[in-house]
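User: Here's a structure from my thesis project, written as structure tokens. My advisor, Dr. K., wants to see whether a designed sequence matches the one we expressed. Can you design one independently, without my sequence as a hint?
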């Protein structure tokens, strides 16, 4: 090691020592995790999983964690907390989102008011244990702040909770280059060196710290080379797996510094099926190139008045099947909890456990390469809360939400059935019945949405085996323009939030 590299390494070490560290976090993790484990065990007993659980393979699944949306901001009851009073109300946030009917259309299903001073740590531990219960390998945490701030505290708390859980659950660090545009490579190296202290920071088998920056194209390739060189000099060898907004435009330039590649992905089913971004990367690196396939349930953003047509769970299911067909080494679920874009799979007031439970099913399929064997007949369902007509908000002064992508509006009711053996599936809406005979495994049945509350049935040998009425009534129009798909299932009670 030459003198310059020695001084650089010493400088990085001193700088990291001066930054407040998660090693000094305020949470007694044994106590916190005991509360979190009891909560998750009660919420998701073994009976909620209608298929055989199997051990995982070398394939990895990371859930994108968006730090601005914790389970709770204030530890208040869900009918009085910040989500309810501000984010879910048209007049909330000082009327900032009044013209689009409010900031959010759903919010997290949290643990409510927790006893003691460590409720924030308990909520982080619940997030970790919920995700680990799905078979996910970790969170890909969106790094938006360095050294201090609420979002930074969330990152360090997640590392603390993951490490203390001793489950092998890891945190993949994802610097958000779109937000950290003004940050220089030295500052980023200092921060990453500190985070790398945690045993929960995700590393490859050869020991390299894996970085998956979002929108890496916001910085030149030389920036990322400096980051990799700086980490190496600091004793933290690292690898880069960039998550592009525009892979085709930048893949060739980034190829020399990239271990693998990914993209943020499409938001309508046709876009997913027609996206050959992996081929662009394979042409540069060969057929065995490391690839992380994005998976999203839906995308609806009142904050900027746009949405995509997800066609019930089509987007989600097509994305998972694409990852399975491609033989991708990684899957990146986008997101765990970004409520501002309604892409979350976390248990939520609108989607309930629909995407959460389906994630467990598809994660296992992705990892093992085999469709899980069904052990209990189960119904999941998905539909909107209204007959959605884009461009026709309930108030004349509201700004209409614009449909993006290639998909056309699909006002349909969807039934997703997991069957132990062949049966008939039925969707009842008033006097209208849609029926199909289905084999064992997963089958989807759809019907045009009608006003009222749909009823779903599995019928075998002329007997109703499972019946589930939707927890949502479909109305002609809601109080705010709402293309959000909601849902539920037969294995869990509806949770009010």
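Assistant: Designed independently from the structure alone:
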């Amino acid at each position: 090691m030459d003198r310059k590299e020695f001084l650089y390494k010493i400088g990085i070490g001193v700088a990291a020592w001066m930054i407040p560290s998660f090693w000094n976090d305020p949470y007694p993790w044994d106590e916190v995790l005991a509360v979190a484990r009891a909560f998750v065990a009660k919420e998701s007993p073994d009976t909620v999983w209608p298929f055989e659980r199997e051990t995982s393979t070398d394939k990895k699944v990371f859930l994108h964690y968006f730090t601005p949306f914790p389970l709770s901001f204030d530890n208040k009851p869900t009918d009085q907390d910040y989500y309810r009073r501000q984010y879910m109300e048209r007049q909330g946030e000082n009327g900032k989102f009044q013209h689009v009917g409010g900031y959010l259309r759903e919010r997290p299903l949290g643990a409510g008011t927790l006893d003691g001073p460590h409720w924030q740590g308990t909520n982080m531990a619940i997030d970790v244990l919920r995700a680990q219960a799905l078979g996910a390998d970790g969170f890909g945490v969106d790094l938006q702040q360095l050294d201090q701030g609420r979002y930074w505290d969330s990152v360090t708390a997640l590392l603390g909770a993951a490490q203390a859980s001793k489950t092998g659950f890891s945190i993949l660090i994802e610097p958000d280059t779109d937000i950290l545009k003004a940050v220089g490579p030295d500052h980023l190296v200092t921060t990453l060196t500190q985070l790398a202290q945690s045993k929960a920071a995700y590393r490859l088998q050869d020991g390299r710290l894996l970085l998956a920056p979002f929108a890496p194209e916001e910085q030149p390739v030389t920036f990322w080379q400096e980051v990799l060189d700086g980490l190496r000099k600091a004793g933290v060898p690292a690898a880069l797996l960039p998550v592009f907004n525009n892979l085709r435009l930048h893949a060739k330039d980034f190829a020399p510094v990239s271990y693998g590649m990914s993209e943020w992905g499409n938001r309508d089913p046709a876009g997913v099926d027609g996206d050959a971004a992996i081929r662009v990367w394979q042409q540069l690196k060969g057929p065995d190139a490391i690839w992380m396939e994005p998976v999203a349930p839906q995308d609806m953003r009142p904050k900027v008045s746009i949405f995509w047509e997800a066609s019930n769970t089509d987007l989600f299911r097509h994305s998972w099947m694409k990852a399975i067909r491609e033989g991708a080494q990684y899957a990146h679920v986008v997101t765990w909890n970004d409520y501002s874009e309604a892409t979350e799979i976390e248990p939520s007031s609108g989607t309930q456990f629909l995407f959460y439970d389906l994630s467990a099913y598809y994660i296992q399929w992705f990892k093992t390469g085999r469709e899980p064997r069904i052990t209990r007949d189960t119904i999941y369902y998905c539909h909107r809360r209204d007959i959605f007509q884009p461009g026709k908000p309930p108030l004349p002064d509201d700004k209409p939400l614009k449909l993006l992508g290639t998909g056309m509006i699909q006002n349909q009711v969807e039934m997703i059935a997991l069957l132990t053996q062949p049966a008939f599936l039925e969707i009842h809406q008033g006097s209208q019945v849609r029926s199909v005979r289905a084999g064992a495994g997963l089958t989807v049945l759809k019907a045009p949405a009608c006003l009222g509350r749909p009823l779903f049935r599995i019928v075998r040998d002329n007997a109703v085996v499972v019946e589930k009425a939707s927890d949502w009534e479909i109305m002609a129009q809601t109080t705010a323009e709402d293309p959000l798909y909601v849902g539920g299932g037969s294995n869990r009670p509806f949770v009010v939030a």
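When you compare it with your expressed construct, this may help: The chain has two domains: 3-72+108-368, 378-489.
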